[in-house]
Amino acid sequence: MADWLTATVVENKQWTDRLHSLRLNVDYPMFKAGQFTRLALEIDGELVSRPFSLVNSPDTRPLDFYFIEVLDGLLSTRLAKLKPGDEIFVAPKAAGLMTLDQLPEGKHLYLLSTGTGVGPFLSILNSAEVWQQFEKVVLVHAVRYQNELTYQATIDAIEAAHSEQFMYVPFVSREAAPDVLSGRIPQAVEDGRFEKRTGLKINADDSQVMLCGNPDMVLETMDVLINTHGLKKHSRRDPGQISIEKYW
């Protein structure tokens, strides 16, 4: 297929009834941690593609894509059925600005995600640059149910390698679970529970915040950070502290 790379499925790991990690073997060019590319399948004679973030770090393979099967989704329902040895098309170049080289200087980096939005942050956390750039790095993963707190072995390995710098804060909103914060990210930031958990203060002098996931979470959390913590949205023309990826 012209302008696409042909990849082979290495693993289709099913975490829950709808959450999958699709791992692909392909000779893929270098990309930046935090970027995304496109996956495609031929369906009824047409090539159907969607963007997916790269979970693996730039220097590791296979490529790793974390996705949710949308029950009526044209592509995701087919991705969920792929087996080792099956072929799939991958766009030959990654894109996206949720990368460390886009951030201004700061001491503390907050990676706030919901659902599959944790994917690009795992790529960043498995890259050497983040530990050289920031003194403290906080990963937040917010889900509905505890079994959706995936990639625990990866997170444990990050914590073991960077115990003085790294902090993991899971959220579960729809059931009681041990050692997690309940409810949603914006409310916990606004009412102080999040800062109490981390022992760190979010402020414009020390902090950089990256938001990825549910658009409601992204916009609500950004509003809270702007209105109660004095942060502002970051752009290359007007540097600030909040970088966002709505993810769908």
Automatic annotation (TrEMBL):
Swiss-Prot/TrEMBL cofactor(s): FAD
Catalytic activity: 2 reduced [2Fe-2S]-[ferredoxin] + NADP(+) + H(+) = 2 oxidized [2Fe-2S]-[ferredoxin] + NADPH
InterPro entries registered for this protein in UniProt: FAD-bd_FR_type, FNR_bac, FNR_nucleotide-bd, FNR_type-1, OxRdtase_FAD/NAD-bd, Riboflavin_synthase-like_b-brl
Keywords in alphabetical order: FAD, Flavoprotein, NADP, Nucleotide-binding, Oxidoreductase
Residue ranges of every copy of the FAD-binding FR-type domain listed in the record: 2-101
Enzyme Commission number, as recorded: 1.18.1.2
Keyword Oxidoreductase: yes
Entry annotated with the keyword NADP: yes
PROSITE patterns: FAD_FR
Signal peptide feature range: none
EC category name: oxidoreductase
UniProt-listed CDD domains: FNR1
PANTHER family: FLAVODOXIN_FERREDOXIN--NADP REDUCTASE, OXIDOREDUCTASE FAD/NAD(P)-BINDING DOMAIN PROTEIN
Family: Belongs to the ferredoxin--NADP reductase type 1 family.
Protein name: ferredoxin--NADP(+) reductase
Source organism of this protein record: Methylophaga marina
